[in-house]
Write a structure and sequence with these properties.
With 468 residues, the protein is α/β, with parallel strands linked by helices. The protein folds into three domains: 121 residues, Probable tRNA modification gtpase trme, domain 1 (Gyrase A, domain 2, 2-Layer Sandwich), CATH 3.30.1360; 131 residues, tRNA modification GTPase MnmE domain 2 (Four Helix Bundle (Hemerythrin (Met), subunit A)), CATH 1.20.120.430; 172 residues, 3-Layer(aba) Sandwich (Rossmann fold), CATH 3.40.50. It has 16 helices and 13 strands. The strands form two sheets. The protein has a seven-stranded mixed β-sheet. The chain starts with 8 loop residues before the first strand and ends in a 7-residue tail after the last helix. The relative contact order is 0.13.
């Protein structure tokens, strides 16, 4: 980070581009001095010395020429977003006028803020902890309701509260161990040993619970991956277009039309869903090099997906045998939803018989569909939504980890905590047990930022946008 925490910095805090309104933030010790030089109140007799008061007036240049009509508010140290002296200017949202105002601010002694520098200062000033700071970026990046709710819970401190609660329990246990160090000649008796094991087990269980929540947290943050697979001409591209509600993939009766994969995102029930239309799986001669490569990619996508939607063409006489063979050959046993497509081509009594036979043959959920007439589409969407939500936690308590960094710290903490338990069982020196416990606590402390270094902060805040 090029600027020190005592520099005065400024940046645009609304998205770049044209708009009805633009906002600029100035932060640092010279903020009030700079704004007094640039801001002219509509009533020139008025002083601009009130905090949290919205002033109306003009930004002027060094020749006292008006640049724009604006409103402006000043915030004191300790009571702003950054925790430092802060000024926010609200002007018209044209690129040229915003650039002119920023240039005037820079010419009067401010530096351009770097990505995430405002939030970094909020952390360094103690206004928020590091987990809350990371939640700011997650809120900005959230594309669905589920991701937004998880980020808001973390910003409100629910994750931090749980982490701090675990830390408190671990520190209290550490105090017990250190008390035993003061009496090295007294061996730990069995009742005390059992008490220590129960204490460390309680801490391990809570840390492990948080670490395991990352599986769902990663899906919430990065999206749920669905692969559309099946033999050529089964209707994968048609279903892909229906789910996207647009003609994204080429649909043609010729087998092998999709030779590469297409991936798009949709919002389904508040969850970000990545849907990939893969090349058709088929064997035998007659397939070109491009199609073979597409099928190779399809297998990789299948292994990386959370759910495989396997389409079959019911109008094909051998579809049931082919499906059984395909699933067996490709080693897929779990996380499959079979979609029996083209039901508009068969009689009504055959549909029920088809579904019953499939369910008896395989313990795999299935649904009937006609992409052409959109029969069964809503039922399919409902099944997909139910499947996704079955593997996701209840967010009402906010106890979920969505950050890979947090999960790594929890796993590293668990390694030390399990060494503590092993040491207690082997009756090793309390000094060594205490050392491992301190290491476990230190790993947890890196989540909230009780312990940090500049390298950690640089890695976290480099993913922020300028203006946050």
């Amino acid at each position: 980070m090029g600027n020190t925490n005592r520099d005065t910095i400024a940046a645009l805090i609304t998205p770049p581009g044209e708009g009805g309104l633009g906002a600029i933030r100035i932060c640092g010790p010279r903020s009030f001095t700079i704004i007094k030089k640039l801001f002219r109140p509509s009533d020139r007799k008025k002083a601009i010395d009130k905090i949290f008061h919205l002033y109306y007036g003009y930004i002027v240049d060094n020749k006292d020429c008006i640049i724009d009509e604006v409103t402006m508010v000043q915030m004191p140290r300790g009571k702003s977003y950054t925790g430092d002296k802060q000024v926010e200017i609200f002007c018209h949202g044209g690129q040229f006028v915003l650039k002119r105002i920023l240039n005037e601010i820079f010419e009067n002694g401010a530096h351009a803020a770097e990505p995430g520098e405002f939030t970094r200062r909020a952390f360094l000033s103690g206004r928020i902890d590091l987990a809350k700071a990371e939640a700011v970026a997650d809120i900005v990046a959230s594309k669905t309701e589920y991701a937004y709710n998880a980020a808001v819970n973390n910003l409100l401190g629910k994750l931090s509260e749980r982490v701090n609660s675990i830390r408190k329990e671990a520190v209290e246990f550490l105090a017990e161990i250190e008390a035993a160090i003061d009496y090295p000649d007294e061996e730990l008796d069995e009742p005390d040993k059992l008490k220590w094991i129960n204490s460390i087990d309680s801490i391990i269980e809570k840390v492990d619970e948080l670490a395991k929540s990352y599986r769902a947290g990663k899906i919430i943050k990065e999206g749920f991956r669905i692969a559309l697979v099946g033999r050529t001409n089964a209707g994968k591209s048609s279903l892909f277009n229906l789910l996207l509600d647009q003609s994204r993939a080429i649909v043609a009766p010729t087998p092998g039309t999709t030779r590469d994969y297409l991936t798009e995102w949709i919002d389904l029930g508040g969850m970000a869903i990545s849907i990939t239309d893969t090349a058709g799986l088929r064997s035998g001669t007659g397939t070109g090099m491009a199609e073979k490569e597409g099928q190779k990619s399809a297998l990789k996508i299948m292994s990386d997906s959370h759910l495989i939607v396997w389409l079959v063409d019911i109008s094909h006489k051998k579809w049931r045998a082919e499906l059984k063979s395909d699933i067996k050959n490709h080693g897929q046993k779990h996380n499959i939803l079979v979609v029996i497509n083209k039901i508009d081509k068969i009689e009504k009594d055959q549909k029920e018989m088809t579904k019953q036979t499939l369910d008896l043959d395989r313990d795999i959920p299935s649904t009937l569909l006609s992409c052409k007439k959109e029969i069964g589409l809503e039922k399919l969407k409902t099944k997909l939504t139910h499947y996704i939500y079955e593997i996701l936690p209840d967010l009402t308590d906010g106890l979920i980890v969505t950050s890979e960094r947090h999960q790594k710290k929890l796993i590293d903490s668990l390694k030390n905590l399990r060494r503590v338990k092993k040491g207690i069982k082997k009756s090793i020196s309390p000094e060594l047990i205490a050392f491992d416990l301190r290491q476990g606590i230190n790993e947890i402390d890196e989540i909230t930022g009780r312990i940090y270094n500049e390298e950690i902060l640089d890695r976290i805040f480099e993913r922020f946008c300028i203006g946050k």
